[in-house]
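Ticket #4471: structure output looks truncated?

Reporter: J.K.
Steps to reproduce: submitted the chain below (392 residues) through the standard prediction queue, then opened the result file.
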Amino acid sequence: MRVIEYGGFGVAYAGRLFGDRGADVIKLEHPGGDPARKEPPALVDAGGTKVGSAFAYFHVNKRFVTLDFERPGGEALLLDLVRSADVLLVEEPYAQSIVESGLSARLVQSAPHLVLVAVTSFGLEGPYASFKADDLVGLAMSGLLGPSGARSGPPTRFPGHMTDVILGLSAAASASMALLGVQSGGGGRFIDISKQAVLTSLTTVSPAVPKFLQEGFVGRRGKTTPAVPSMYYPTKDGLVRFSIYVEWMWPIFARWIHEVTGDEEVLSPKFENPNRGPYADLIDHWTTELTQSYTTEEILVEARARKLTLAPLNTLDGIHSSPQLQERDYFQHVPWLPKDVPYPGPAYRTVPDTWELRLPPGEPGRDNTAVFSEIAGLSDVRVKSLVEEGVL
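Returned output as attached by the reporter:
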C-alpha cells in the first residue's frame, strides 16, 4: 500500500501510523522543504545534522520527495505519483488550494480508486471554511480550552502537538475504513476532516457536557465535573490526582481524612450527597491536608490499599523512567541518533510485534531519484535536470 502525505503534523502522524505498519509512505514537500523541519528544539543526529525533534518523531518510516506541481511538468508528475497511491493525505493550506484550483477533481479523475483525506481547521464548507486556525485557536473554538487550567488562572493549552496526534488518528482511522470500502468493490472516497469538529467530539464525550445538558451544571476552570474531590493536589514531593466519583468511595475517603487530620466535620452525613459541589473548597482543603502528609509513592500505596482512585502527575523524567513504559520497550535506541538519546516507539504493540524503524527522517528530496524513476520512469539525469529547473 502506498500513502502520499502533503502537509503539516496533522497528516504527518497519520502517515507515520501507516508507515509503521509497513506502508510505503511518501512525504511530498516543496523544493524548499517543510518549514516544520526547523521547529525547535532540535535533535542532532549521529552524523551531526540538526532536525526539529517534532519533525523527527512524526517523519520516520517514510520516503521524501520534493515537487512544485505549479511549474511546467510538475502536475503531470503529481498525477503519476497519485495514480500509484492508495491514500493521499493533504492538510491546509494545501487542502483548500487543490480544491479551489480544481486540482483535486483532476486527481480523483486520474485515480478513481484514491482515498483523498483533506484536513483543515474548520472543514471545506461552512462560514469558517476559509479561516485558518493554529493549535490554540482550534482548542479554544472546540470548547476544550475553556475548563482547562487552574481555577485562578487563564486557560491552559495542551502541551506539544497533542491536537496533531488526535487529527492524525482521525485521518488514519477514516482513511483505513474508506480503504475497506474500496477493497470491497466501491470507488474512491473524499474525506473532509475539520480540526474544530474532531476536537469538539472530545468535548462532547467528557462528563461536563452531559452534566450541562441534563442538569445545567457548568464546570468552572480546574473543575469540569461535579465529582468532589477531582483535581490535582500537592504531596511532599509532587502532585497527585484524586477523583472520588463513585459514592461507595466517599465514606472510605472521609474516614481516611479523619484518621490523618483528626477533623470531625468530614464525617458529617451532609457530604454523603453525590452533589458535593457546594462544599468543593472545604473538601479540597481537607484533601490537600491529607496529600501533603505523604510522599507521592506513600500515598499511592495507601490509596491502593483503600481501592481509591489516585494517580501521580508524572514529570518528563518520571515518564522516561516509568517501569511500565520500560517493560513495554517504549523508548527505543535507534542507529541514527546518539546512543544516549532515546526515541519514542509506537503507542501500541501487536502480536507478533512487527514494528521496526526502517527509515530515519531524511533531507528534502532524499528519495527523488528512486521514487520518480519508479513511478514515472525518470532517469538520474532527468531528475537532476528537474531539480535545476525548480520542479523537484
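Triage note (M.O.): checked the attachment and the full C-alpha cell line is present. The mean pLDDT is 88.
Status: closed, working as intended.
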